[in-house]
Amino acid sequence: MIPRILIIDDEADIREVTALSLETVAGWQVIVAPSGAQGIRRASLEQPDAILLDVMMPDIDGPTTFQILKQNGTTAHIPVLLLTAKVQGQDRRKLDELGAAAILSKPFDPLTLADQISDVLGWPRGGIGKSAPADAVSPAVEDAARIN
Q1: Residues 125, 55, 85, 100: what is their CA dihedral angle, to the nearest 10 degrees?
Q2: CA distance 68 to 73
Q3: In sequence order, what are the residues at sequence separation of 6 or more whose Cβ sits closer than 8 angstroms to the Cβ of residue 70?
Q4: pLDDT tens for residues 76-93?
């Protein structure tokens, strides 16, 4: 099963880089929402495997969006990872108290973001329940065999 991740972020550039990173590096399916309100609706309808939620957004901010998601019976079970540029002192303590699965820092490395998410959620690298067939050979092994 390929993981489905909902990205809720008001910044189009961040949504695009994050989606591209998770789609190309990890092969995950990505759903995006540009606001907390739209993210709540998309989470209810799409039932993603996890949500990557920006903390600072206009209208409904990340912490408020998180609380609404956790109070909704259809989304309460979905792990939420907060994405923020504020990871110092009092801001960090307030975010820790929310009970999110993790707090990830902006800026992030697009090449390692999927691994960070997998590590936090206990997913195998490469996806939820995703395993290669017993007789599958990785491209690296095939390349090595051709060289030798």
Answers
A1: -40
A2: 10
A3: 76, 80, 99
A4: 999 999 998 866 666 666
| 79-96 b/e (C-beta count within 10 Å ≥ 16 → b) | bbbbbbeeeeeeeeeebe
pLDDT band at 20 (very low <50, low <70, confident <90, very high): very high
Which two three-digit tokens encode residue 16? 């695009």
Q: What is the mean pLDDT of the chain?
A: 84
Sorted by where each starts, the structural domains of the chain and their CATH numbers stand as: 4-147 (3.40.50.2300)
Q: Tokens 């960070």 correspond to what residue?
A: 116
Burial group, residue 102, by CB count within 10 angstroms (0-12, 13-18, 19+): middle
**3-state secondary structure (DSSP) of residue 50:** strand
Q: How far apart are CA 45 and CA 85, in angstroms?
A: 29
